[in-house]
């Protein structure tokens, strides 16, 4: 259901389509940017470089560093509890390993902790599986083909992250990738395969080899529902609609549990554990810089708050990923993810004049910046509420790969648009960058432990794996690699840990004191737990 | 000014912009959602909803995040279904009809009413995939049920007490693990890594200086 102006612009897209297809078939893609051109488009257009949108942290382990204003506010907000009011001797749950978060990383961690003999429990503030994992569409990277290697994968990851990635973490990511694909396959994840078993793999932005494995465009959903089923088969307890609102420590300053809150009754519960794994995911619902988001309803940076108050430093908390192709129209799906796979299988980015203004598979940060620049140059298409977008020329896919390709390879996308009267097989779709991923997060060592002893972190809450920009397909990979890793190591450490009967929240008291000394006065509380959209109509 | 419509949330009337989805409309009306909300874009199945348009007879089902409000819509969300899930060990089951008979025997009580298919929020042919499961054709059951978001609406309508989403999930796991062809190149690479065959190259590249890495990165060859 496009407007008249949009339909006029579509005519221009259609007018150039045949020639563009001809060029592709002849092997002539739009030119890739040079390293200098990339630097420039990023510096001038990427939201990470807008200085006025950042604030300096006044307290905590990263004092003096700049992070997005909204994150600074939540990291330096009031705790939800007064430690003096909490009775830590009344223990509601007593386990070896406590996993906070029921997404892909948390579930993988729980399965491996269980596999390694630990008494493990998951707490999650919504339902088990309500997570960004469920919404990851495009796929999962692994260098498992003869023309590829973990070292080649390493190079792509480092370059994509602007060489800021922590090498030891990248090593683990790429080296464990094939093992993780095998693990998932053996759990029954249905990867797209040829008849002879060869994995169907494609490029993602910034990859030099086709190593994106997929399960149609339900890759994350498929992985998540299998992991959830496995957690249920193992009868690992899952306490749902319960958030963690503070880490609890023992007399030696090691993590030893968490203060929990029932999301409905607001009852406070105490979980004691020998080791704790934070797997709370990302931060899209913080809506940094007012961006819409492709993220899950619960993506509010909770883990960062818990860890920061417990004294764990963050790494690269200033860098966020804006996915180049969020839905820009219609308003009902504003910000929803349009998987990178749409470009992987042939759709180009086209401006209002029908020009393919860039190579469509640059890394996500470059691609998003280039789309923003194109709109700033006046080559965008007006959407609604003052917004703009550019075209993603989806009908090209079927012209390149045959009729039925869209339904077979990206059925979720097709369904999403058909609901609003847009058939992406016949008409291009309008996109604009959407807040997608938290590149930075809590600093960990390669065993998954943060700088706070016995406090492990896995998944999107971790910082450093992806440097300043994550490549497509490395997030589903990261949650499996580092989820499993955290589960194994948290179980091992738990075996050598004696349960403490001197639980305390002293760090929360000190944090409050530090806030007062720094003159921070705020009525905000954190972790945020959920966004509040009441009386709004735009999100 | 945007056109407004009247909707009834659990029977109570609210006026909301007509462009909103049911989920957005509830928030616009003032609900701070905790239940019945998840990914907000049709993947997670958290927001199963039942509705009826005033003057019409039929009760319809949908996902609240994927459905626009209509004038005179009566809405009730169904954020939780007490569905049956049978535990099993994936390593110790076989992809034969036996396993369905053992875990979900009620599928053989299907009376063919097709209420599941009519209710499906993903427009899947639910009754068909149950029929495939009955026959032990797990490959077809897996394909047909692949887009299931496990919202549970189908089961709520089933007179035979079938837990369709769990049947589909079991079939998919059996298919992915036992029936889909083995991936030779994957097994070979995993063996290579476990035997240390990839280690030297990795250690080598990890030792490169930032400048050397940049040089390599900017001159990569790309698979066509």
List keywords for this structure.
heterodimer, A: alpha/beta, Flavocytochrome C3, Chain A, domain 1, FAD/NAD(P)-binding domain, seven-stranded mixed sheet, five-stranded antiparallel sheet, 16 helices, 22 strands, 34% helix, B: 224 residues, Ubiquitin-like (UB roll), Fumarate Reductase Iron-sulfur Protein, Chain B, domain 2, 3 domains, five-stranded mixed sheet, 10 helices
Summarize the model shown.
The complex is a heterodimer of chains A (539) and B (224). With 539 residues, chain A is an alpha/beta fold.
Query: For the residues shown, what is the average pLDDT of chain A?
Result: 96
Mean pLDDT of chain B: 96
Architecture per CATH nomenclature, i.e. the level-2 architecture of the largest domain in chain A: 3-Layer(bba) Sandwich
Radius of gyration of chain A: 23 Å
How many H/I helical runs of chain B? Answer: 10
Q: Which oligomeric state applies?
A: heterodimer
Strand content bin of chain B: 5-15%
Remind me, CATH topology of the largest domain in chain A? Answer: FAD/NAD(P)-binding domain
Q: In total, how many domains does the architecture of chain B comprise? A: 3
Numbering strands along the chain, what is their spatial order in the largest sheet of chain B? 2-1-5-3-4
What would CATH call the homologous superfamily of the largest domain in chain A?
A: FAD/NAD(P)-binding domain
CATH topology of the largest domain in chain B: Fumarate Reductase Iron-sulfur Protein, Chain B, domain 2
The low-confidence parts of chain B are none
CATH H-level homologous superfamily name of the largest domain in chain B: Alpha-helical ferredoxin
Count of runs of 4 or more consecutive helical residues of chain A? 16
Explained architecture:
The complex is a heterodimer of chains A (539) and B (224). Chain A is an alpha/beta fold. Chain A folds into 2 domains: 4-49 and 321-435, Flavocytochrome C3, Chain A, domain 1 (Alpha-Beta Complex), CATH 3.90.700; 78-138 and 160-167 and 209-319 and 439-507, FAD/NAD(P)-binding domain. Chain A has helices at residues 4-25, 35-45, 69-75, 104-115, 132-135, 150-160, 167-187, 219-233, 302-309, 341-344, 364-379, 395-401, 405-409, 411-418, 474-495, 506-517; strands at residues 54-56, 66-68, 78-79, 93-100, 120-123, 140-141, 201-202, 212-213, 238-239, 242-249, 255-262, 268-278, 314-315, 320-327, 349-350, 381-382, 388-392, 429-438, 441-443, 455-457, 462-463, 525-526. In chain A, the strands form 6 sheets. In chain A, strands 4, 5, 9, 10, 11, 12 and 20 form a 7-stranded mixed sheet that branches. In chain A, strand 10 and strand 11 (255-262) form a beta hairpin. In chain A, helix 4 (104-115) runs parallel beside helix 8, helix 4 (104-115) runs parallel beside helix 15 (474-495) and helix 7 packs across helix 15 (474-495). Chain B has 10 helices and 5 strands. Helices cover 38% and strands 12% of the residues of chain B. The relative contact order of chain B is 0.11. Chain B has 3 domains: 4-77, Ubiquitin-like (UB roll); 90-179, Fumarate Reductase Iron-sulfur Protein, Chain B, domain 2; 184-217, no CATH class. The termini of chain B are far apart. Chain B has a 5-stranded mixed sheet, with helices on one face. Chain B has helices at 22-29, 97-103, 115-119, 126-135, 138-145, 153-156, 164-179, 184-194, 199-206, 210-218, and strands at residues 4-9, 12-17, 48-53, 60-63, 73-77. With 224 residues, chain B is of the alpha+beta class. The chains are: A alpha/beta (539), B alpha+beta (224). The interface between A and B is large, with 86 and 73 residues.
